[in-house]
Amino acid sequence: MAIKKIGLQTVKFQNPPSIISTYTIVGPKEGEGPLKDYFDYILEDDVWGQASFEKAEAKIQEETIKAAITNGNLTNQDIDYLLAGDLLNQIISSTYTARQLSIPYYGLYGACSTMTESLSLGAMLIDGGFADKVVCATSSHFSSAERQFRFPLEYGSQRNFSAQWTVTGAGATILSSTGDGPYITYATTGKIVDKGIKDATNMGAAMAPAAIDTLITHFNDTGFSPNDYDLIISGDLGRVGKAIVLDLMKKEGYDLSNLFTDCGVEIFDSEKQDTHAGGSGCACAAVVFNGYIYKEMKKGNFKRVLLMATGALHSTTINQQGESIPGIAHAITIDINKD
Amino acid sequence: MENMTNKEYQQYAEKKIPKPTYFKNMLMAFLVGGIICTIGQLIRNWLFNSGLDEKAVAGGTSIILVFIGALLTGLGVYDKIGKIGGAGAAIPITGFSNAIVSPAMEHRTEGLIFGVASKMFIIAGPVLVYGVSSSVIVGILYLLLTKGR
């Protein structure tokens, strides 16, 4: 019997897993953004001595996970599972990272929702009694994403104002059955929501309906209201998606205006850094959460946060065949108290 | 949200996108395109004055502009020109050069055959296919219409 499930799509953890260590590595552009002081390591060169952008991304993820493990005073043998994913075909960044680590590995694909997908599953593994320590990680790289989804870097094209900028970086979280918090107390698993947006340069609008669906379900399932949170933050809806969520949530009777924002909006200064609608990519939610939010929670500045990474689960092939972009959003409650 | 149909949502979302700066884009395309064409004209005049005939001048001008486009792509400058100039940078032959050289550079990591050579035409390929095809169709029409004259 699913004794920990509440409502339609939410799990309430009986022994909420604790976050015991995090680490973030970001690229040079992210290291010039407004959150630069929260990142653990800023690369001077986004290739990092590797022969390709794909290899660089794998190295970024690998070094991030290693540092998170070291930060937690642990070794690879202490970790029961590695849950990781990324944007590249066949999630190569995560798999080639796992090749180096010899930790039992589940590869995930949730596109940019991977951070909360991995944290939800990691927390379930621990509270289910299947693991004591789990690493949840994800990465993305501007240049490897550009060549897979868009144009060569040196091609002279113009970007739409709704387009977003893939974050270069990686974030890793270590969850443990013991620890003094912050804790993951609830996880609301998202459904695929697709309102028919086909424009791959407008991911924010494609993912916003999924975010709204998950938010409303989360409030219904848990009985929380928005004011129970100090911060509600989505993964990479960007400016366009954030505006849609604020507007449509208001029509549904939820006023989020003072406590809702988006990692993609926060990570760059879109005027100075020319990132149009904001950041995107798996690393967007990963570095903002493992850097900014986690550190602010440790200081006690946020007591309860709803983190909701959002994903656009399409591919260029099916998009060219005329299909629209399915969106998803997974939400987790992170609390400095266990209950 | 649930009572909004897909069509209603798409129309709603469309309104949330910031409007492109059409006038600025057109002005910049005019200026950048104009500058590139003026440079082309200067090259043309210089080649004429060097004593080349019409056919050699046309070929020579294209060759030099393609070289400049490729060089600026390699130096990492043409993408910036393209960002400012838009169609003004894409339509001249320097833009065509950029469309071929940029994927060739990008895919160098996958080797000379499956990388550089096979990915070289991913952007320019459609232009070549439809450009050449339409020139053949126009040529046939011209032949049919002017036949016997």
Describe this structure in words.
The complex is a heterodimer of chains A (339) and B (149). Chain A is of the alpha/beta class and 339 residues long. Chain A has 2 domains: 5-176, Stage V sporulation protein AD (Peroxisomal Thiolase, Chain A, domain 1), CATH 3.40.47.40; 183-335, Peroxisomal Thiolase, Chain A, domain 1. Chain A contains 10 helices and 15 strands. Chain A has helices at residues 53-71, 92-101, 114-127, 142-149, 203-222, 238-251, 263-267, 270-273, 282-298, 316-320; strands spanning 5-6, 10-12, 18-26, 41-42, 81-86, 105-107, 133-140, 165-166, 169-176, 183-188, 231-234, 260-262, 279-280, 304-312, 327-335. In chain A, the strands form 3 sheets. Chain A has a 7-stranded mixed β-sheet, with helices on both faces. A 6-stranded mixed β-sheet of chain A has the order 4-3-9-7-5-6, with helices on both faces. Chain A has a two-stranded parallel ribbon with strand order 8-13. In chain A, strand 5 (81-86), helix 2 (92-101) and strand 6 (105-107) form a beta-alpha-beta unit. In chain A, helix 1 (53-71) packs across helix 2 and helix 5 packs across helix 6. The longest helix of chain A is centred in the middle third of the chain and has 20 residues, at 203-222. Chain A starts with a strand and ends with a strand. The model of chain A has no long low-confidence stretch (mean pLDDT 96). With 149 residues, chain B is mainly α. Chain B has one domain. Chain B is 78% helix and 0% strand. Chain B contains 8 helices and no strands. The longest helix of chain B is centred in the N-terminal third of the chain and has 28 residues, at 22-49. Chain B is extended. The mean pLDDT of chain B is 93. At the A-B interface, helix 5 and helix 6 of A face helix 1, helix 4 and helix 6 of B.
